[in-house]
Design brief:
Distance between the termini: 55 Å
Order of helices and strands: HHEEEHEEHHHH
Largest sheet: 3 strands, antiparallel
Strand content: 25-35%
Number of strands: 5
Helix content: 40-55%
Structural class: alpha+beta
Oligomer: single chain
Length: 171
């Protein structure tokens, strides 16, 4: 009643397809649940007022002790906000990736490695862009996951200290 805006009396005896944006999909879900005993997935549902929402749906057949189907049980959860958030995050990641990959400046993402006292001792290459590879002559496939001291053992500690300070303090 809460999700769809129908009263219990309005729904009893009606085909479940009236709650789906695609009524034929409801029949397919029912048949899949009947064949396998259960169906889990996402559906586009429609409220009494015509508004649609994305729902997580789990449908199971209720059976007797003799394994004879006597009905179905469905659990539905409105996941519209989560889907919208996921889509925004995906779009943001695509924009970031495009900017990162195509920028003319060489750029690398590192993980600072500290000793027990919190002093930076090294840093690991997590991601580099094409410009970084071109400017340094280092190939991403050779350095990602490795530390700067593994890749460039002659690196002066002052660089590790400087990068570590920026990463840890923002200064």
């Amino acid at each position: 009643e809460k999700y769809f805006g129908y009263s219990r009396e309005e729904l009893i005896g009606k085909p479940v397809g009236i709650l789906s944006k695609f009524p034929e999909e409801a029949k397919e879900i029912f048949n899949a649940a009947k064949d396998k005993g259960k169906w889990d997935g996402e559906v586009l549902s429609v409220k009494k007022n015509g508004e649609t929402f994305v729902a997580s749906l789990s449908v199971s057949f209720v059976k007797t002790q003799d394994n004879i189907p006597i009905g179905t049980m469905g659990i539905l959860r409105d996941i519209t906000e989560r889907k919208i958030s996921d889509e925004k995050l995906k779009k943001s990641e695509q924009q970031y990736r495009l900017l990162f990959d195509e920028m003319l400046s060489g750029f690398a993402v590192h993980e600072i490695i500290c000793d027990q006292s919190g002093t930076p001792t090294d840093y690991r290459f997590l991601s580099v862009n094409k410009s970084f590879e071109k400017m340094t002559g280092l190939d991403a496939s050779d350095i990602l996951g490795k530390t700067v001291l593994e890749v460039l053992p002659e690196t002066e500690y002052s660089w590790i200290e400087r990068y570590g300070k920026v990463a840890l303090t923002g200064v």
